[in-house]
UniProtKB/TrEMBL annotation:
It comes from the Bacteria. This is NAD-dependent epimerase/dehydratase family protein. Residues 8-41 form the NAD-dependent epimerase/dehydratase domain. Pfam families: Epimerase. It comes from Salmonella hadar. Signal peptide: none annotated. InterPro entries: Epimerase_deHydtase (IPR001509), NAD(P)-bd_dom_sf (IPR036291). Gene3D superfamilies: NAD(P)-binding Rossmann-like Domain (3.40.50.720).
Amino acid sequence: MLDVNKKILMTGATSFVGTHLLHSLIKEGYSIIALKRPITEPTIINT
């Protein structure tokens, strides 16, 4: 049988669904690299 590396590049890992998917993939033995946006200050948009 082939020895396949199970690596995933994931975006959205900090969202509600993403965190659950992330935990499930880790339990299945996947190696995860998660991208996230830098933290920025909230701003008010004047319209």
